[in-house]
Write a structure and sequence with these properties.
This protein is mostly helical. The protein is built from 21 helices and 3 strands.
């Protein structure tokens, strides 16, 4: 049935192409010759070229003066003939408008078929938990396509076109400038949206790779004796955990006081930068070990069987959060308005629409030399970098507090799993994930944060000033941060960096501000590199977010049950 539906769609598209080709042929049959005949142009008031049935022919030479004289004659008295090539059949076919009409529309249909087949193959080869993410991306692409259709039919080429043209002429001095700006901004929004989905796809790929490697690393790198089960001793040896005296009284039993003392001594004193560097340099084995340590905690808390697969549990968690993270609302575009408006004003003030305009080089150097554009751009870049780093650090620091600590007892050499640090009141009270101005920002953007939504348990106390709203607020925070990075990359590269590089390469004499060209290029390359670095933090930030919202008090028991049913571990 699916194949039949696809065949029907293809046949319908072919029928539309044929009808359109027939209509185009009928129009072209009465159209004037091509520009090579150099007869009357559409702007001249002389008689138009009309079809004629006369058999009289006049051969025109190559002299331009003869052509000019003949072009003054009425069209009904003349008929041009050209020397036909040897193969007249091929010449006739290649100069038939119907052929090119069919080829153009068949190419469009072929692209649509390719798109449909590609999406079908992606959906069929994607794990079930990630399929909703693909659906969300397709829905957002459809929304961007609708905006383009609306602009082309209603604004630029529709009833609003004249109004916008009049406004553009009255206030910008050019009737076409504002219309072309609409087209440019829609294209820019579309490029930003597509790149955002590409970045989301990279996150999906990183998540899938992480999930697939969890079980693989567990079996190959951590299971030393090959019995299919990773013990604490094997895990401690593989992760090279620290050796310390936990059983201080030597009675062979670890009391709560001994565990607390051991946790206090292992508490890290990493600062902001050190914590980021340590997390960035973490190996795949260490990350898999964290998940297995969390698994031991979940097994003990919920009395789950040893066969429970933590990679399947985290895989479903990743899928649910990814689906919500790639959804875009109209509000998402609002933060881009002041930034793009400032940058685009440099072009519009010089009658330039975008970097693709014929006079685009006239704006080169002025993005750097215009203070009310340059300094706000620096502010947005600094805000974006700080935002991305803070998201990364906050997820990392909370994860460290939620992870059980694995150590090796220096007395008997056995591995011991200490409880998470947040369970110790003294350590938890000294922990602060919302330092200084960040606490104010979290409370402001969450309408009170912890004051209006106080933490309900010790786990939520780790979330700082945002309180119980952490899960939804920081999922949106990561999405908006990624969105801002993508927008900065797209505009900086396509509208400034590439334009300035072209101006330097071509040694153009039309550069508006030659003195500011090179500094502008260097600065915006730095801005682009900063945004790329921020995007490189996104996959790890997302993985840690999924971790801190799916362990301890946030364990999703419904997903645990679903995984157990799929693995046939539930009791019947």
């Amino acid at each position: 049935k699916k194949m039949m539906r696809r065949s029907y769609r293809f046949m319908a598209a072919a029928a539309v192409c044929s009808l359109a080709a027939t209509k185009l042929t009928a129009v072209c049959a009465f159209a004037p010759p091509s520009s090579s005949s150099s007869f009357l142009s559409s702007k001249q008031s002389a008689p138009q070229w009309l079809p004629t049935t006369t058999m009289t022919t006049t051969t025109i030479g190559s002299k331009s003066s003869s052509i000019h004289q003949l072009s003054m004659l009425p069209s009904s008295t003349l008929q041009l003939t050209t020397e036909e090539p040897a193969n007249s059949l091929i010449y006739t076919i290649l100069h038939t408008p119907t052929l090119w009409s069919i080829l153009a529309m068949t190419s469009i249909v072929a692209l649509l078929v390719l798109w449909e087949e590609t999406i079908h193959n992606i959906r069929s080869s994607t794990p079930k938990a990630i399929v909703p993410v693909i659906d969300s991306m397709l829905a957002e692409v459809g929304g961007l396509g609708f905006i383009g259709l609306f602009l082309s039919t209603v604004v630029t080429g529709g009833p609003l076109g004249q109004i916008i043209g009049r406004l553009s002429e009255d206030y910008l001095g050019d009737e076409e400038l504002l219309l072309e700006a609409f087209e440019f901004l829609h294209t820019f929004f579309f490029e930003v949206g597509i790149l955002f989905f590409v970045v989301a796809g990279v996150c999906v790929g990183a998540v899938l790779e992480e999930v697939n490697k969890l079980s693989e690393i567990s079996e190959l790198a951590l299971d030393a004796d090959g019995d299919g089960e990773v013990t604490l001793d094997e895990l401690a040896e593989a992760l090279d955990v620290s050796c310390m005296i936990v059983d201080t009284d030597g009675d062979g039993i670890l009391s709560e006081e001994e565990k607390i003392d051991a946790l206090k001594s292992t508490a890290s004193n990493y600062n902001f930068i050190q914590a980021i560097i340590a997390e960035r340099s973490m190996s795949e084995v260490d990350r898999a070990g964290e998940c297995l340590v969390a698994r031991e905690r979940i097994l003990g808390k919920y009395s789950l069987p040893q066969e429970f697969e933590i990679d399947a549990y985290f895989g479903k968690i990743f899928g649910e959060n990814l689906e919500e993270s790639v959804e875009l609302s109209p509000i998402t575009w609002l933060p881009l308005i002041p930034l793009i408006a400032l940058e685009n004003s440099v072009d519009l003030s010089r009658d330039v629409v975008s970097a693709s305009s014929s006079n685009a080089f006239e704006s080169c150097g002025y993005f750097f030399a215009t203070p009310w554009v340059f300094y706000p751009t620096i502010f947005f870049q600094a805000l974006s970098l700080t935002w991305a780093l803070f998201n990364f650090w906050k997820m990392t620091s909370i994860k460290k507090m939620l992870l059980p600590t694995l150590v090796t007892d220096g007395v008997n050499g056995e591995a011991a799993l200490l409880p998470p640090r947040y369970t110790i009141d003294e350590i938890r009270n000294n922990f602060n994930s919302s330092p200084s101005i960040f606490a104010w920002g979290e409370q402001f953007f969450t309408c009170g944060g912890a004051k209006t939504s106080p933490p309900r348990n010790e786990h939520e106390e780790l979330f700082g000033a945002v309180g119980a709203k952490f899960e939804g607020v920081y999922r949106d925070s990561m999405r908006f941060s990624t969105w801002l990075c993508v927008a900065l990359i797209v505009y900086s590269t396509t509208q400034i960096v590439f334009r300035d590089m072209a101006a330097l390469y071509l040694h153009s004499a039309n550069v508006g501000n030659p003195e500011g060209l090179v500094p502008e290029l260097i600065v915006w390359i730095i801005f682009t590199a900063s945004a790329v670095f921020q995007l490189s933090l996104a996959p790890t930030t997302f993985l840690n977010y999924c971790f801190v919202t799916s362990v301890e008090e946030y364990v999703k028991y419904d997903i645990v049950q679903e995984v157990m049913r799929e693995e046939e571990l539930c009791e019947t």
